[in-house]
Amino acid sequence: MSRFRDALERGEFVITGEVAPPLGTHLSGMKAAVETVGPHVHALNVTDNQGATLHLSSLAASRVVLDMGYEPIFQQTCRDRNRLALQSDLLAAWTLGLRNLLAVTGDDPRSGDHPHAKGVFDLDSTQLAAIAAGMNEGHDMLGRDLDGATDFFIGAAMFPEAEPWDIQLTRAQRKVDAGVRFFQTQAVFDMEKLARAVEALRPSGVKIIAGVLLLRSPRAIDFINRKLAGLMIPDHIADRIRSASDPAEEAITLATEQVREIRQIADGVHIMPLGLDAAVGRILQGSKES
User: What Cα–Cα distance (Å) separates residue 208 from each residue in 23, 70, 113?
Assistant: First the structure.
């Protein structure tokens, strides 16, 4: 069993971070991020062509993280692969020693750096989670027996602040029914809505890890509002960063406050540092102080 899974299932407040594979084959930058963030977290998400932009595959990069002595969460999107490739890569991931899976549908290619790419979307994240759960039971999506099963700890994304909430809740419950055991949320800014989500889903036994995004600059805020589907930085948060004499330092202070609140609500926190990797330790330590 993975350390991440064991901690979450025992009720420990877990910390996850995020690293992006490079655009190319040089791994020094990614490895530096892993070495900086890794010691502070239970596991590291390895993104899969995030934002529909080209990067080294999550499968290969996750193995690099594992070889470095840290625990990866292999991220797999449905955007770029059909059901045959998705299943094949799941088997490859397990064979390579990857134990944690985050199933995501993926961003529209038109928002990325290859806008003329054809999105596959043969399946969605709920269907992918169900396939992974079936592989854990020893069969493929057609019901055929596998010559060797998997035992993935299956996660998915959710959006506590999205409205209408009843539709979002129904989608989350379907993912739980498909085999999802933990959620990592989109960046959270409204703690009351996070608490609403946790309370609604707690009876199912699923764990919720709340997302915290380091808004390092006004430019980063503009990019997020323009490019990241389904995420809009609230005006009062954006104004706080834009008016700060040191926006990066203010982003660290804000994230520290958010993690402190999340500790009282959710099962863990997922920190997306956006390049402020060295601040992760400060944020976590500061969030424990009253």
Answer: 31, 21, 31
